[in-house]
Specification:
single chain, about 80 residues, mainly alpha, 4 helices, globular
């Protein structure tokens, strides 16, 4: 989990997009994709990304809401500190 909160957020999003692609294509991850997936750090320290009132995180908040289903979003949000 190196880097600041926005870097961790970006790596989480990249990992989620990679996972969605793998699921859609019904295949395992390549070595490069495994590296991307290994960068996922979870949402524990990224509560700001789930706060619609945080102007500095507005873009990330909207991205998450659009990327995840309601259930996935609720599960991710419930894992924050």
């Amino acid at each position: 989990g190196e880097g600041g909160a926005k870097q961790k957020y970006a790596r989480n999003i990249e990992a989620i997009r990679t996972l969605f692609k793998l699921e859609q294509e019904h295949r395992g991850a390549t070595a490069e994709e495994q590296q991307v997936l290994s960068q996922y750090v979870g949402w524990g320290g990224l509560a700001d990304a789930f706060d619609p009132g945080k102007d500095s995180w507005a873009k990330e908040y909207a991205e998450l809401k659009g990327l995840l289903s309601e259930d996935e979003y609720a599960a991710a949000r419930s894992s924050t500190l």
